[in-house]
What we know:
The protein is mostly helical. Helix content is 60%, strand content 0%. It is built from 3 helices and no strands. Helix 1 packs antiparallel against helix 3. It is elongated. The protein binds zinc ion. Zinc ion (ZN) binds at residues 6, 8-9, 11, 32-33, 35-36.
Amino acid sequence: MNNPKCCICGNLCEDQYGNNPDPLIKDEGARCCNKCNDAVISFRIESALMKKKSSESEKIGNLIESNPSDKDIIMATVDKMLSDWEDTTRKRYLEDLRK
Ligand SMILES: [Zn+2]
């Protein structure tokens, strides 16, 4: 069985399995090489920390407490900011890996 081609840098993976590039690349069945997998892991950690930070943010909690009727819009805005952050950061990672 041939080693799969890395979906990020285009090199062949080091073994026949490769690594799962999600969430950096969300294509079903995509594989990435060990070198790109380091960036995938950093991206996972960075995203997890961002999500944790925003969900535990005391300031956002206070904002909701003082404007309870705006809770939905506040939460939707936080979600939007997080997903914008994720898109921008994903692009930055992919540009770095592909140059
Ligand atoms: Zn690669």
